[in-house]
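G., the chain you wanted modeled:
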Amino acid sequence: MTSPADAEQRAPTFRGPWSYLAWLVLRQRRRVALGAFLGTVWMVGLVFPPYLLARAVDSLADADRGAVFA
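Predicted structure as tokens:
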């Protein structure tokens, strides 16, 4: 016959989806850190094209064509 302590030791350690997700993150720290870094770089990189395009349009409106090619 099994005691309650034995049954408690065999119980799954994952009590729900969030604890399972936390376990996965802890097991794959490098992969999660690399993914967070690449995602951040990707999103920051998306900021530059609209800024540069707006700057080019503004300089053309001011008739400063040298600023577009600089």
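The chain has a mean pLDDT of 80.

Shout if anything looks off.
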